Amino acid sequence: MIFEVVNMSFALPEMFMLTMACVILLVVAFLGKNGASTAYGLSQLTLAITAILIYQGMEASGGLTFDGTYIKDAFSDVLKLTICLINIAVLLYSTSYLKARALFKGEYYVLAVFATLGMMVMVSAYHFLTLYLGLELMSLCMYAMVAMHRDSSVATEAAMKYFILGAIASGMLLYGMSIIYGVIGSLSIATIAEVIQTGGVDNTVLSFGLVFLIIGIGFKLGAVPFHMWLPDVYHGAPTAVTLFIATAPKIAAFAMAIRLLVDGLGDVHQHWQGMLIMLSVLSMIIGNVVAIAQTNLKRMLAYSTISHVGFILLGILSGSQEGYAAAMFYALVYSLMSLGGFGMIILLSRQGFEADTIDDYKGLSERNPWYALMMLILMFSMAGIPPLVGFYAKLTVIKAVVDINLISVAIVAVLMSVIGAFYYLRIIKVMYFDQPVEQHKLEAPADMRVMISANALAVFALGVFPGSLMAICVAVFA
Amino acid sequence: MFTDLPLLSLLIWLPVFGGIAVLINGDKNSLARPLSLIIAVLTLLLSLGLYTGFDNASYQMQFAEQASWIATYNINYSLGVDGFSMPLIILTAFSTLIVVVAGWEVIQHRVSQYMAAFLIMEGLMIAVFSSLDAILFYVFFEAMLIPLFLVIGIWGGPNRVYATIKFFLYTLFGSVFLLLALLYLHHVAGSFSILDFHKVSLTMQEQIYLFLAFLIAFAVKVPMWPVHTWLPDAHVEAPTGGSVILAAITLKIGGYGLIRFALPITPDASMALDWLVIGLSLTAVVYIGFVALAQSDLKKLIAYSSIAHMGFVTLGLFIVFRIFANSATGSGAVLAIEGAMIQMISHGFIAAAMFLSVGVLYDRMHTREISAYGGVINTMPIFGGFAVFFAMANAGLPGTSGFVGEFMVILAAFQANFWYAFFAATTLILGAAYTLWMVKRVMFGEVANDNVAQLTDINRREFLMLASLAVIVLVIGLWPAPITEVMHASVEHLLTQISQSKI
Prior knowledge:
The complex is a heterodimer.
Chain A: H1 12-31, H2 36-57, E1 63-65, E2 70-72, H3 74-100, H4 106-124, H5 128-146, H6 153-184, H7 189-198, H8 203-221, H9 229-236, H10 239-246, H11 248-264, H12 269-292, H13 297-317, H14 321-348, H15 364-367, H16 369-383, H17 389-403, H18 407-432, H19 446-464, H20 467-477
Antiparallel strand pairs in A: 1-2
Chain B: H1 7-25, H2 32-52, E1 62-70, E2 75-81, H3 85-106, H4 111-130, H5 134-143, H6 145-155, H7 160-189, H8 194-199, H9 204-221, H10 230-237, H11 240-265, H12 267-272, H13 274-293, H14 298-318, H15 320-326, H16 331-365, H17 376-379, H18 381-395, H19 401-416, H20 418-442, H21 450-453, H22 460-478, H23 481-499
Antiparallel strand pairs in B: 1-2
Helix pairs in contact in B: 1-2, 1-4, 2-3, 2-4, 3-4, 3-11, 3-16, 4-5, 4-6, 4-11, 5-7, 6-7, 7-9, 7-10, 9-11, 10-14, 11-14, 11-16, 13-14, 13-20, 14-16, 14-19, 14-20, 15-16, 15-19, 16-18, 16-19, 16-22, 16-23, 18-20, 18-22, 19-20, 19-22
């Protein structure tokens, strides 16, 4: 008998994080209501050390481990590192929000760390079951986080919707996986890719399974027509939780899409391309058009997320290495911009005031020119105006589509980005051209002020020098 | 002396970083104005270095700079100027200086942000004219919208929000098609260098689509009829400085884009569709001329007259195909293109001067309605002299720069088709009609009301500003050779490019 030596080092960051998550859970249980600050500190420490572990392991060679169910490659390293860094920022932003609303409890941090672990497992999964495990670990934590504000009926409703629709999506995904298992006879992504490459697979049944996989992915990403939960959840959840849901989980969902569609089913690319074109075009259209009608900033950003997802799908559907790299670049950039956007809402909110309607931003440039400038950078970046990084994200995905001669899809994409520009401009309009109504002094702790500045300036700096991040994304798929 | 300096980079980044410095300095002290003035003057002086160091005999890109920017996609920071872009860069530097001077006393609200916006815009516009990489060009082309959007929206008139959002979305709509065209060309050419795009061969169908994309992008900027409707709104609502930059520079980017992209990259499509551009240009000249006649708002009138004048630019650029068809030598073609270029530069000065004149009146009376004025020359004789002079130049009086460009284009149009020349020449009547009628109503006659009676004449700052423009308008009108000389080689090169089929 041959025993495979399991290479534990490939999953070292995850193991560390799991241990720490359990420690935090115990600490919170032990300290009770007073444990929040300790839990916050420990969570940040955990995320930071995990990030360092990932970073240090990046040079080392990767490969499959745990009997081929888990992978460490450049793709997983970069995404996991980003997820950790983004979540450090998310927790930093959330703290003052939670404190002001009596939500500052240890449970939030426990759930956040477990959810992060789930995302990391998703990114590194190379087996349908591992993937599903990660997905559920992440999703269940997030359902609970949305429901954390127990007294708020909106939040409870949002959590209910999120849970039910999320469960349906998971069900769809499992169903799709089971069909594919029926065709291939394996759940391992490596084996699936191998079997499809050798041929002799019943493509009809395979496509049938593919449809369900794509529905599951569409749900998790929030692509039209599986986007219904997204605006309600973004709107209903406490802003700190919205911030959490809107950033790193999108990277994880993107990783799931790449693992399933590209790593697993890359050779039947022609079967899923058409479906993704539909999802992508609809997402861009519905997301951008409906966002115009929103008066609530969180809802508006929710629809804007839907349209961004449409753009990310553009990169994936192109089916080229360059397209995948472009989609990855877009996903990373999106999470950075989204982090700033929701971070700004948190920054401007205070006890009893959510700062989430567009009118709350009236005259912001008179009240605080610096915050207004940061928001301006974020909004122009989301609109895809150079020299901000959002432009290069759009540029690379559209380039990928043009290169495979799908000019009509590219035309839809650019037209929709013009329509999208309108509602981002509206935010800038109320900030810069309107007179302030709200006179309340803007106060924020120093760490948040630094964070929001760093966040927006990063969007600007990456816009001036996007080369290095692009190079990383391209290298991952090379 | 200048050859070692990265002159173009300096010209781009000095105003940009200067603007940021002004912005950071803020309004707490009174440094914003002098600091901006120093930066604007320095930039203008540096830009003159381009003229003195320019090799007239060469059509090659000069003052070239090259550095890798986004290595993964082979996008480079490559700069260079030829006879088309160099004069426009100097025009940009000069106009910005004028804008800084014009806003000196008028702008009292958020001064540093106002000055910074214009300085940053100056750097971006110079960068548009000197970029030789398609993506670099596009980045600056779009980035320029941000400061202008804010300038109109913050310091503009009562209906500024509508005007500025319309302006932004209109131009963005046009430019996304440019982006698609550039990406497609990269797909074909394998590089983002504009000079490589010039060499790539394309089928007729590809050229037609690319040409239409270019046309949408640049026609919105020029603006050509019927996509001109953003311009009157933007001009009317913009502060004086914004109007000056819009008229003097941003419109020129449209014309420049046609010269740099549409003509050399898609010559066959340009030839096949020249009737479209010629038709639209003549419509602009004739129809917009009549529209201008009907305006009761001073700025709107000048805005419409700008559209009509820019019609000459696009006309001049696209009649060359007909001239080639009619005569083998095509000697008129040089005249047409040079006429279009002179028209762009001359319009930059005259329109700037006209908007400044309106600004002078508006600062005193706070109205732009023609009917609110009358007999201004009685109370403001010096200003009246300038205003009448610029109006004459706008109408194309021989001896002013306004005449040279129009005359060259009309002359060339005769070689293309009599009727083109005929319709183009109506501008001499229409332009004179709307301009002189306006002058009559505003300047001459009895003093119309008490407000006009209380007007004070221009101060030294305003005098300096208008006088410098008047001198330039006169010099170009009498002696255009210094401008035509620098662009001659580039024009010849462009004509060889467009006379070779790329199919």
